[in-house]
User: What shape does this take?
Amino acid sequence: MCGIVGYIGYRQSTDVLLHGLSKLEYRGYDSAGLAVYHQGSITVRKFKGRLQTLTQDIANSPIEATVGIGHTRWATHGEPSDANSHPHANHHATIAVVHNGIIENYLELREMLMKEGYRFTSQTDSEVLAHLLDKLYEGNLVVAVRKMLKIIKGSYALAILCEKEPDKIVGVRKNSPLIVGLGESENFLASDIPAILNYTRNVYLMENDEIVICTQDNVTILDENDLEKQPDIFKVNWDAQDAEKGGYEHFMLKEIHEQPESIRKTMLSRIFEEKDYVVLDDVKITKEDLDRFQKVYIVACGTAYHAGLVGKYLIEKYARIPVECDIASEFRYRNPLVDKCTLCIVISQSGETADSLAALELAKAQSARVLAVTNVQGSSIARAAHDVIYTWAGPEIAVASTKAYTTQLLCMYALSMHFGLLTQHLSKQQYAALRDELFDLPRLVQQVIATDEGLHALAKRRKNAEDIYFIGRGLDYYVSLEGSLKLKEISYIHSEAAAAGELKHGPIALIDQGTLVIALLTQDELFNKTLSNIKEVKSRGAYVVAFCKENAEIIRKEVDELFVIPKAADDVAPVLAVICLQLLSYYFACERGCDVDKPRNLAKSVTVE
Ligand code: AGP
Assistant: This one.
């Protein structure tokens, strides 16, 4: 999604803005621009395409300035173009605005402003903000902003620069993230922390409806009633290099390799080698609460939804509570049966996904207890939930989610085991056996990652595949869904996942001579069933690549290629299997020359519906 950076201080502001925007590239964008205050007026430069175009333009024609705002845009209203890029300015460019989110009533505002003689130069919803501020401005930018907030509807994070008040930048947010970075004789605004980490670790996470006024030496936060508020400063405890490639060719590969460590971290101080209980500090759900819940909903989008499917399986198995897992954009519009006897678990890496946040708000409004599983401290979803489990995966930059997914799975294990102990459907012995399996995972994951040449070779041989099908049963089906999503999003190969037992109800019609089918067989009880499905597709000419655990190699003669993952209990095997599929997708994308970390049409953080 779009990215915002604002700067006021003593440095060359174009450098700070361009650097900050480069750190937000992972969010996905199609144009970039900036506005700075220079010799008594505001200069705007903005271009369709990569940030490099803007950087080159500034290099060709530098602007001396120490205050400014910058933006990377991901088109929603209006095609990607120079004119639709941000910042947007009023007619004489005395006020410039960058905006993330959507102004829902922009059409009516646009019409009203046009009647008053305002001329629009873009197709965006955001441009109304610049003209509206022009109309409302009477010598005090903050007053004009507050008036504007009473008129506009929708979601927004804004950074604003005003020619008549060049000693400040003003920011505001509603349902779209905006953070303030506090430095020495300099201050920053940004939509995400990596943008400012080069300069400061002191961060304030803005709340909805607050206004921030940054001057070179001061940061003032006004609450929704315009009362000054003491900001609760948060110290960022991860390094800028955690968000850098660190020698890997792509962020995705780096993040796949980080999984032994991220899994270990997620377990740290929650599951203990010698103890027979789980500690979840920010989850206050008691046995009485669980007895009251008649239903659990797990709601999420994309990869997080796939983690939710595994969560459903685990909670039902260990705690014997009925769970429904829903796609957030469906859940929010289908009038779900939610009340005070409902627990709603929202899973989101970014904690900012618009549909997931809306689903959370809906569940809360209907009195449900809401638990968030997220990777981003202080994110909107974390803040809105009653209980939180952080995945502690560290920053995930590649658009394709990898370590966030496996740490979400770890949280699902921890939560379901915790619930299982509380409801007493999980015995201490069962708990101990599972705990030991989880503790062994980082080592096994390392083993899977270290033996990836076979996966690379397969991708090389089959890089021209046009369709790839994934099949599996039970947990293997959920992993198939994730494997298929990963493959299509970064390699652009058409792919589908099918529950193996469903093949003969339709999907098998697509199997032809040489069709590549990836079959997962990590579930002992379902092994023979899936094997029968493999025979079905083989007899229609499929080229079958199977993944099974050690000691199951008897199927070697039944398939065209076999990959063996380390032996692990059925319930934890998905973690190992999915890493094979992440690597396979990665190599397919590389072999096809795709932009692995920034696949076309996708954004890291989907903050609009
Ligand atoms: C994952 O590879 C995807 N890019 C995407 O499906 C993602 O998982 C989804 O947009 C949800 O994001 P969130 O976890 O930040 O809510």
